Amino acid sequence: MDTELLSPHVAWVLIAAFLVAVMQAGFTCLESGFVRAKNSIHVAVKNLMDFCISSLLFTLFGFGIMFGPSYGGIIGLPTLATYENLSPHDISFFIFQIMFCGTAATIISGAVSERMRFVGYIFVTVVIAGLIYPIVGHWVWNGAHIGQANGWLGKLGFVDFAGSTVVHGVGGWIALSAILVIGPRIGRFGEHGHRIEGHNLPMAVLGVFLLLFGFFGFNGGSTLAINNHVPLIIANTALAGALGGLGGISFSWLVNKHPTVEGIVNGTVSGLVASCAGAHLIGSIDAMIIGFIAGVLALWGMMGLEKWEIDDVIGAVPAHLFAGAWGTVAVALFVAPDQLPTGNTWSQLGVQLLGVGVIGLFSMPSSYLIFRLADKFIPFRVTPEAERLGLNIAEHNASSSLLDLISQMDFQARTGKFDRNVEVEPETEASEIATFYNAVLHKVRTETHRRQEAMNQLTKLASTDALTGLPNRRSFFDNVHRALSASQRNLRQGAILFMDLDGFKAVNDRMGHEAGDALLKMVAHRLSDVVRDNDLPARLGGDEFALLVNELESLEGLKILANRLIETLCDRFELPQGNADIGASIGIAVFGGTKAMKEQPEEVIHRADEAMYKAKLAGKGTWRLNEAPVA
C-alpha cells in the first residue's frame, strides 16, 4: 500500500468537500425549521435522500457528462466514474464535485415542502442530478480544473467561479418548475389565505450558520488548491453573506415595519449565493455591495412570488435563482476589465447575461415539461387529506410525541369534541404541554357544564310554572303547535281539555293565599297521576289548567278521561288550613283527523275555552265537547 503523504492541495480540497457536505445539514435545519412540525421529518428525509441519489447518479454517469471528453462543448460522455485508479488529486476533485451536485439537488427540497410526495421528489432529484445539472456544468466548467475551457460558455469567457448560476441558479429554476406543477399549499392563498409560520425558527437560523460555514468550503475549495487566493475568497464570502443579511432585514424592516426572521435568513443566504460567481476576483467593497443588493433582491423576489401566488415555502427561488443571477452579472460590473476573460466590461456583461439567460431557458422549460408529463403518471402532490394530516405520518408513518399531541389537539379543534383528555407518553417533550392542556380542558369542561346547568335552569324557568312544576302557558302553546303539525302529517286526532276549578276563589278567600297555593299544587299532582305518559298537563294561569292529548284513540275514551278528571278533582283536599271541596268544569276541543281543517294553536285552545264556558253554564262539575271543524 502506498503510504505517501497527501499534498496540501489535496488535503484542502477534501476539507472543502467536507465543509460543502455540512451545507446539507444547514439546508436540513433551515428547511425543517421553516415548515410546520407535522412535515419536519419529511423534509429532513428528503434532504438525506437527495444526497444519496445525486451521489449515485453523479458517479454512474453525471460526472462523465460534466467533465468527460466534450462533444462540441455541449455534453460529455456519460461513463461510470471508476475513481479507484485515479490520482489522489483527481479523486478529491471527484468528491468535491459530488458535494456540489448534492447541493444543487437539495435547493429544491425547501421550496416544494409540505405538499410534494416523496416519490415525486425522488423523480425531481433524478432530473436535476442526472441530467440538467451535469449538462449545464459541462457548458461552463468542463476542462476548467485543468486550465482548459472546453464547454461552449467557458470558451466564450463566462465566469461562474463557484456556481452562482451553475449550482444555485439551476437549483432555483428547477425549484420554480416544481412549484408551478404542484401548486401552493392548502390555505396559503385565496380568499382565506394566510401566512404559514414555521415551527422552529431558531433551528432555521442555526441552518444559516451551518450554510455560512459550508460556503467557506464551497467557494474556498473551488480553487482546487490551497493558494494565496483562498483567504481572499473566504473573506469575500463572509462579508457578502453578512451584508446580504443586513440588506434582507433592512428591506423587510422597511416594508413590514419590523425586522423579520425571513429577512435576515434569506438575505444572508442570498449574499452567500451571489458571492460564488466572482469571489476570487472582487474586493471588500465589491463584496459588501453585491451581498447587500442580493439580500434586497431576494426579499423583493419573495414579495413578487407571493403576489403571483407562487408558494415557495422557504424562499429558495429568490435566494438562489435571483441572487445567483445577480451575482453572476455582477462579475462584469465590479471586476476590473483587465481581470475579465474578454478584457472588456461590456462584452463581459453580454457574455454573463447570455450565460444566465441560456441556462435559464434550458433548465426551466425542460424541467417544467418533464415534471408536467411525469405528474400525469406519478402524481407529484399528496392528497388534501395527507396534506392536512402532515407528511411525516402520511408519507413515512413517522411521528413524535409532540406531533401526536398536535394531531389530537387538531382533531378536537376540527370536531369540537373536548369530552376526553389528550393522551401522551410520560417523560417526553410533549408531556408537560399535554398536562397543562388537559388541565385547561378540565377547566373548560367544568365551566361548560356549569353554564349548561344554568341554561337548563333558565330554560326550565322559562317553560315551567314556578308554583306547580307543570309546563306553563308558553310551553303548552309550543307543544300544541307541534301536536297540530304531527296530526296533519299522520292524520291522527288529538284533543285539548281546558279546565277551570269550581269553588277555588272561595277557598282562597276563606283560608288565604297560602292555602290556595297548596291547593293548586295538589291539583297539579292529581292531574299528573291521572293522565297518560305521552299526554301533557299544564297550568295556564290562576286556577286554569289544561291537558294535551297527543293521540286520541276514541271519543268514548276521551269522555271517560274527562269524567275521571272531574271525579278526581271533586274529591276532598286536606290542607293544613282545613279541608277544601272544589270541582272542575272542562271544555274539550278535538283537532286533526282525515277531514279536519287546518288550525292554529290559538284557535283550538279558543274552542276548548268556549266549551268550558258551556260546561259552566250547564251547572259546573261537568264537561262539554267541541269536535274538530270539517274542511
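The above is record 1. Record 2 follows with the same two-line structure.
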Amino acid sequence: MTWQPELDELRRRQELAERMGGPEKIKRQRDAGRLTVRERIAVLLDEGSFHEIGALAGTAGYDESGELASFIPANFVTGTGRLDGRKVVVGGDDFTVRGGAADASIIGKQIYAEQLANELHLPIVRLVEGTGGGGSVKTLEQSGHTYVPVNPGWDYVVDNLSMVPVVAAGLGPVAGLGAARLCAAHLSILVEGTAQLFVAGPPVVSSGVGEHVDKEQLGGSRVHARNGAVDLIAASEVEAFTLIRRFLSYLPPSVFELPPVAANADPVSRRSAELLTAVPRDRRQPYRIRPILAAVFDTGSVMEVQRYGGSIVTALARLDGHPVGVVAGDPYVAGGCLTVEGAEAVTRLADLCSAFHLPVVTFTDQPGLLIGTRAEQRATIRHGVRAIAAVYQAGVPGAEIIVRRVFGVGGAGLTNRHRLTRRWAWPSADWGSLPVEGGIEAAYRADLEQADDPAALLAEIRARLDAVRNPMRTAERFGIEEIIDPRETRPLLCDWVRDAYAVLRGSPPGRPAFGLRP
C-alpha cells in the first residue's frame, strides 16, 4: 500500500490549476497582446526556479459520490523563485479567471505573499492585472451580503516598504486595489499600449462623473508617463521584466543587508576628455546631463528610476561596482529649476537610498525652486520643502559634484551641507543667494538711472561681479573644499565610494528611522 492514489489526485489538481481560465480565456489574453500570469513568471524568473505556493486553492465542484467534478483555480499565483540567482517572492494576478477580481482565495494568497516577503526578508515582485480587490458588483449577489471595506494585507504592504525591495508592474488594465498595489512600491512600471492604471474603469467613470472615455484615454501610458503615478513606462512586458531584474540588482534583499558590490571591468582611473567641454562657458546655455553621468559612472550602469522628474534626473548607478543613488539637475527642462515633479523624484530617491543603505552622489546645477504664477498655484514650495526634508533625513554617505549653479532654497537643500559631504566643484561652478544676472538692475537701479551711459556702467558692474563670483574666491575662504579638473571626477568618486561602504559596513544596517511612504 502506498499513497500513490492521493499523489495522482494531487497532480491532477495541479494540472487543472495550470489550465487557469481555460483555452478560450487564455486565447483572449494572448490576442490582447498580454502574456498569461504563468508565462510572465516563467519569463521573469531564472529557468526552473519557481516554487509555487497554494496552487490547489480555488473553487471546486463535486459530484454525488464526492469526487472532484470541476475546479476553477484562484486567480492569484504566488511563490518563490530566483532572479539572477537571488531569491525573491513573486505574486501575479490571473486575468483569465474573473478578470483578476478577487475570489474566495485570492485575498488569502495575496496576504501570504506579502507576509512571506516581510518575515523572510525577501524582495517581492507584484505582477498586477485587474482589480485584485473586493471583486465586482456581481460578487455581492453571490455572497449574499456586503461588508465594510478593508485593504487586505496592507499592514504588510505598508511595512514592506521599510523592510524589503518592492517592485510592481502593471501588465493590463489595473483598477481599485490593484492600482493601489501597483503604486505601493519602490519601483512601479506600466506597459505601454496594453496596460492602464485608474482608480475606477471607464464604466464606473461614465456612471459616476459622466466622462465617456476608453481605457487608454483614462489611464494609459500617455496619461501616467509624466505625472508621477508610476515610475517607468516599458515598451513591452519583456522590457518590464528586464527593468525589474536590473533594479533589484542594485539593492540588498532587505534593509538588514548592504547593497551587493558587483565585479567591475571599467577602470577607476578612467578620465573622460569630453567632461572638459561638457559645460559651456556661456552660463545661459544649457547642456546635456546624461552624457556626463555616463562618463563618470561604471559603463552602462546608470538606470533612471523616476522618469517623470523632468528637471531632476534620479538614477541608480555603480562606482567601481558599488551601487549608489544619483541626483542630477537637467538644465534642458525648466532651466533646471526644482519643480513639483522633480521634488517628488528627489523625495522617492532619497527615501529609497535611506532604506537600503545606498550612498548618494549629487550632480548639482540647481538655480532654485521654480518661480512664477503656475509654480505658486501648484504649491511648489511645499513639494520642494518635502524633498529637502527627505534629503536631510537620509543619513547615508553623500558626495556632491557642483557642476554649475547653486542658488536659493532649492540649491541649498539638494544636499545636506550641514553634515560631512565630500564635495568637489568644477571650474564652471556659480553660486550665491540668487543669480547675479537676475539682480543687477534691481540692486544698482539708482546708479544706472543717474549714469550718463547706463549700458557702459552695467557692463562695468557685471565685470566686477564676475570677478567676485569666481569660485576661486570661495575656495580662498574654504567655502568650497576643492575645485577640480572635471576629468578627475570618476577617480575621486571611486575612491570616495570605498570609504562610504567602509562606513556602512561598520554600522550594522537595519530599518530606517522613519517609515517609507509610496
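The chain has a mean pLDDT of 91.
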